[in-house]
Amino acid sequence: METAVRLGVVALVLTLAAAASAQTPEPLPGASVESLLQLARQRNPELAAMRHEASAATERVLPAGALMDPRLKVELQDLTKAGEQGVTLLPSNVGGTVYTLTQELPWAGKRELRRDIAKLDADAAQARERQTWVELAARIKALFAQRYLVQASERLASENLDLMLQLEKVMQVRYAGGLAAQQDITRIHVEHTGMRAELVALSAEWRQTQARLNLLLGRPADAALASPLALRPLPDPAQLEFAALSERLRQANPQLLLENSRVKSAEKTRDLSYKSRYPDFTVGVNATQRQSAVREWGVMVELNLPIRGGVLKSQERESEAMLAAARSRQESATNQAKADLLDKLLALESARRTEHLMHFSLMPQADLTWRAALAAYENGKADFATLLDAMRQVRQARQNQLKAQVDAQMQLAEIERLIGEDV
Fold first, then answer.
1. What DSSP letter does each residue of 86-153 carry, written as one string?
2. Within a domain: residue 143?
3. What is the chain's Cα-based Rg?
4. What is the pLDDT of residues 35-54, one digit of tens each?
5. Could you give the CA distance from residue 144 to residue 216 in angstroms, rounded to a whole number?
6. Which CATH number covers residue 332?
7. What phi and psi values does residue 408 have, to the nearest 5 degrees?
8. Please, is 347 exposed, middle or buried when counting C-beta atoms within 10 Å of its C-beta (0-12, 13-18, 19+)?
9. Would you put residue 395 in left (φ > 0), alpha (ψ -120 to 50) or beta?
């Protein structure tokens, strides 16, 4: 009896635990960049389309190098047997029936070249899929940083508004005692209105970034997202050396991989155009039926004659020109990518230094100015305009620090887009 009771209790506990786990909602994406990227990889429709196109291109490789299907021809001869009978289509009742089976055979090497071209086209499709992903990831990282800036700016504006409301109470007491001017009351009301208008704009921007992120995630525009918790940590300066990143860019940049596949495909296409000088063959075997028996056999060989030299040379010149164009595009894309990489690295370093300057120099100075102005105002040694200016300096310093942090994140996202992977 006691054992049965224990088993019942265990079963009840397990049932309640399973019900609780089933009712636990999944956490909302958006608290971190990783959660957004994981969802985008699964649900972004554009990325899914590129993935399907890459899969389709891969399936073209095998047919490209395969032989053509053999052809069977049935020829009925002398349907009336020299006028001895009416027209018939029965093979055993005509003068003769010839069965011919043929197979087209391209010149040696043509099939391999066509298969190689299709394989390179599949590689190009995979590079386009990868390019779509890295561009999508960069946009998500940038929007995440922008949401963090909007959230932090909204919090900063709310804190300043609360401080303004406290100052207004102090000023009203001072005004009642004849220690403050009417214009100071008016000025602080103007500041209130400006801060509330800024909060309205920030709220609208918050909803806009939410809609843009949901679009990239393949979700409804108004679907809920978690608030960003923190920005990604910046890599160490040693990880941002131009030479090392240039090598990673050369190996993993999707655009360069795409251009490389195009160059190789153009080379194979040129080789195939030169192969057009050589004929393709068609071989076959035939059997002739007389009445109900097959008594005659034959073989045949057919080939095309590539005698239009002007056409062939024109095709060869076309392939050479296309190859030269592909190589030029590859060189241009490489130079552009390296220039963009250097530009983003310099911008990231500038943002990092600006943030350091704001945090360790400007913000402490602005804070000291604010405290000194507040003390002077309370003692009647400074007017409200001085106090308001000091408050604006503190707020501007904090806002500039936030912008520098987010700018660094934007530049990092662009660097990772260029090298095709995370730093």
1. -----GGGSSEEEEEEEEEEPPTTHHHHHHHHHHHHHHHHHHHHHHHHHHHHHHHHHHHHHHHHHHHH
2. yes
3. 38
4. 999 999 999 999 999 999 99
5. 12
6. 1.20.1600.10
7. -60, -40
8. middle
9. alpha
Q: In terms of residue numbers, what domain contains 173?
A: 33-67+106-419
Sheet containing strand 71-77, edge to edge, reads: 71-77, 96-105, 281-290, 293-303
Q: Which residue has the tokens 């389309």?
A: 49
Query: Is 26 domain-assigned?
Result: no
The CA distance from 261 to 127, in Å, is: 9
User: In this structure, is residue 3 part of a structural domain?
Assistant: no
- Cα dihedral sign, 64-66-68-72: negative
Asked, for residue 92, whether it belongs to a domain, the answer is: no
Number of independent structural domains in the chain: 1
Q: How far is CA 95 from CA 76, 288, 290, 413, in A?
A: 8, 10, 7, 80
- Tens of pLDDT, residue by residue over 223-257, are 999 999 999 999 999 999 999 999 999 999 999 99
Write the CB contacts of 281 (distance below 8 Å, at least 6 apart in sequence).
104, 105, 106, 107, 301, 302, 303
> What distance in Å separates the CA atoms of residue 53 and residue 16, rounded to the nearest whole number?
47
Place of tokens 């920030």: 202
Q: For residues 315 and 226, give the distance between their C-alpha atoms in angstroms, rounded to a whole number.
A: 59
pTM of the model: 0.84
